[in-house]
Amino acid sequence: MTTVQPHSTGEHHYWQGAFVGDEEAGRRLAGLAGAVQDALGTPLETHTLLAACDALSTALLDPAHPVRARLARHLPEGEDPSLLAELGALLGRRELTRKLRRELGDTAPQRLNRPDARETVYEAWAPVGLVAHIAPGNAATVAPLSVVEGLLAGNVNILKTSGSDTLLAQHLLAELAALDPSGAVAARVIVLRFPSARQEWLRLMCAQADAVAVWGGESAVEGVATHVPPGCRLVEWGHRISFAYLTRDAWGEAATLDALADDVCLFEQQACASPQVVYLDTEDEAEVFAFAERFADVLAARGPAAADGAPDRAEEAEVTTTELLARLEEHLGLTRVFAAPDGSWRVMADTRPALTASPLHRSLWVKPLPRERVVGTLRPMRRYLQTVGLAGSRTDVAELSRVALAAGVTRVTPVGSMHDSYSGEPHDGVYALQRYSRRVAVHAGDRFATVACLDDLARPVVLPPPAGPLVGKEEVQERHRTVARADAELYFRSGGTTGAPALSLFSYDDYDTQMRAAARGLLAAGYDPVRDRTANLFYCGGMYGSFLSFFSILERLGGVQLPLAAGPDHRATAEALITHGADTLFGMPSYLWQLLHDQAGPLRAYGGIRKIFYGGEHFTREQRRTLEEGFGVEVVRSLTYGSTDLGPLGYQCAESTGGVHHLHADLHTMEILALDSDRPVPPGGTGRLVFSTHERRGQDLGRYVIGDLGRAVPGRCPCGSHAPRFELMGRLGDVMRVATYSLHHGRFVSLAEERGGYRGELQVVLAGQDARERLTVRVERAGAPDPERLREVFLDGYPELRAAVEERLLDLSVEAVDGSSLDRSPTSGKLRGVVDTRA
Fold first, then answer.
1. Helices (DSSP H) in 161-247: which residue ranges?
2. Are 727 and 658 a contacting pair, CB within 8 Å?
3. How many CA atoms lie within 13 A of 159 on its CB side?
4. What is the CA radius of gyration of the chain?
């Protein structure tokens, strides 16, 4: 891990990857418009940013990491190094992904997708362009986190830190940029350190900005607002006032008073969520004074404030003045003050309900405010209100929450939890990422019906390159033991076609992302959610996921669905298809083939099946021809290629045939490695397909050897998509080592079709004998050629097979059987292409 370091102590500014001094920064600032235009031309993939943030998070959470050691040198004087760990926790992939989902609805919000699959309208969140961040002094975490929010929205960001601040923000953001090999993060980050008195620099910063985010009080906002050009979005993150509200039952409980004291003392009232006033649901002044006295005793029992929380001279003067004025009004019967002899805290009871700011440092107002007067009393201060801590019955909390929100409050919490927050929580009533974004739309015509994401026609997706060792099913299954329960919300098992069923774990967020990706792929394959009436005929039960997954996919597409599921009663299924007018079938080829042939009479008479989308297996070329010529099916296409562990990996478009698929390039990266080594195959070569997924919470599924063979398809697809293409060439398990020769199941299928005229399913069964091995090819009796003739086709067209037979190492036979007697997975219904019974 490397980063850019300043060459001299005078280089206080970080500009797009380099530390520069005042003179150079001023020169570059004058040409800011050009720098922004160039940076916006460099795409920033959200996954690239998340990977860089996550790597920085890992470094900051490790006390021994050199990045943390470098950044610790730039902490403000007296600041605890644990601040870096706090930053690390906020920069982790989990936190930022949740923030993206909550605020912008997706982990790739800048991609132009169809919010309603039934319309060719594309929407996305686009960056506003340049965001200028004016950070407050002495708030070390605010500045870099504000820039990260701007980056998540895809913006170029220019940050002003105080002239008295350390260079923590500059160096932290430089470390983040160094973790992005694409350079897109560095191109979007500029950090300047200068005093507010340097108004010309502030003016130049704001002049090119599309949004200006200001942190601070009214004076800070006013000082910046004069430089904000017309049409520029001013985002104010100013000071706010919070208060507690207690009902009669609650304020009599000791636990409520202890919880309130926690809120007061935790940050010495320095946080916006700290209560400055306690309102009681009463008009009785005596009750207000009595509560103030009781609460004073609770504060008196608390330990002293930390040394770094002590007020400075100006703050101490404000505290003293406020207390003295309150004491003077005691003579008028308006107030009563209870204070520590050493001045470390004070409780000021006031009979007037108007909201009054506290001088902080354990200084609390107590006031009466009946609930029916809350809105009228507080609404005039609505632009300053933030949090109310409520204490009362469940009914009180429900009713008072609505009242407080109507008055202008943006957060409601229990008393004792006013400082608590959750990932993705709105700040001051808005989502920051939406304030730094624009919602944009592209209206397209019917010729875009099969284009699910407009960006796929514009440029390829670039994800972080895969790294780490290769892993297989066994290693992934072992890793499941360490997946946190919070990340294991959905359990699926594989069909078990190639071995024992494997368990796969998903979070609901990851499942949703994958189903939406598969839905986009189905549109590309020619599915029409407006017109198609679909029967979902996948298998279900026993934790098998196909039926549920395709139910979810159709739900997201808004398509008409008959969730029948695969079953043994083919007659009842056919009757349901005909009765409800189904014209599109989803299912496994093995099951659909059996269903159509078993119920050929009524289904041919119906003549309404127009489309078949299949998954898990493949229809052969001759089987497709049978479906088209014999049943009038117009479209026979793969609806997805994937695995239970990784989810959808590829999809077919209208230009795809056979085993050719596009990669879901926004979810995965793909490698094709040689069979005998972990090296990439030559261009066009067939090898092992290896996938790395970038959308799994709490799991590392990088460089997964999935067990399939494939080759890359060169060139851009005629459909126009930039998504890479690959052709499936079978499974590793389809390659059989028999009698010293390597034989492939797919070769038997091709010979049976091309030379034997066979259109059904085919299964190879291997068995051991005393002197030699036995290979039996099982084909369907219906429509199959003479078995002996088919045997001659195999021997004539497969030299390695013929050699093994002639050398008396192998016995070959062909059997014609009923299709129902072929071995299939009991879970998924898939045909087992190779059944190896040898010990």
1. 168-178, 184-187, 199-207, 218-225
2. yes
3. 37
4. 34
In terms of domains, do 217 and 271 share one? no
Whole-angstrom Cα distance, residue 737 to residue 732?
11
- Coil, strand or helix at 125: strand
Residue 1 is predicted with a pLDDT of 41
Token pair, residue 696, equals 């799994």
533 SS3 class: strand
Could you report the per-residue pLDDT of 425-461, keeping only the tens digit for each? 898 899 999 999 999 999 999 999 999 999 999 999 9
Domain, as residue range, for 373: 241-414
Q: Does the structure show a pLDDT above 90 at 524?
A: yes
**Helix, strand or coil for residue 728?**
strand
Mean pLDDT of 184-195: 96
Which positions ≥6 away from 162 have C-beta within 8 Å? 135, 136, 137, 138, 193, 195, 196
**506 and 563 fall within a common domain:** yes
Residue 736 to residue 763: CA distance in whole angstroms: 13
The tokens describing 275, both together, are: 């209560």
Residues 630 and 612 sit within 8 Å (Cβ to Cβ): no
**Residue 29 to residue 231: CA distance in whole angstroms:** 21
CA distance 476 to 520: 27
Query: pLDDT tens-digit profile of 339-378?
Result: 999 999 999 999 999 999 999 999 999 999 999 999 999 9
What pLDDT, on a 0 to 100 scale, did the predictor assign at position 495? 63
CA-CA distance, 476 to 483, in Å (whole number)? 11
Q: Looking at the predicted structure, is the pLDDT value of residue 419 above 90?
A: yes
Pairing mode, strands 233-237 and 490-493: unpaired
Give per-residue pLDDT as tens, 82-116. 999 999 999 999 999 999 999 999 999 999 999 99
Backbone angle region of 154, left / alpha / beta, with phi > 0 → left and psi within -120 to 50 → alpha: left
pLDDT at 7 over 50: no
Same domain, 247 and 224: no
Question: CATH no. for residue 256?
Answer: 3.40.309.10
Q: Give the residue carrying structure tokens 């991609």.
A: 111
Same domain, 698 and 744: no
Provide DSSP, 134-147.
Answer: EPPTT-TTHHHHHH
Tell me the average pLDDT across 267-296. 96
169: which 2 tokens? 């923000």
Q: How far apart are CA 543 and CA 536, in angstroms?
A: 17
The sheet with strand 584-587 has its strands ordered as: 560-562, 533-536, 584-587, 611-614, 635-638
- The H or E element that residue 515 is part of is helix 508-524
pLDDT exceeds 60 at position 39: yes
pTM equals 0.86
In the three-class reduction of DSSP (H, G, I as helix; E, B as strand; rest coil), residue 133 is classed as strand
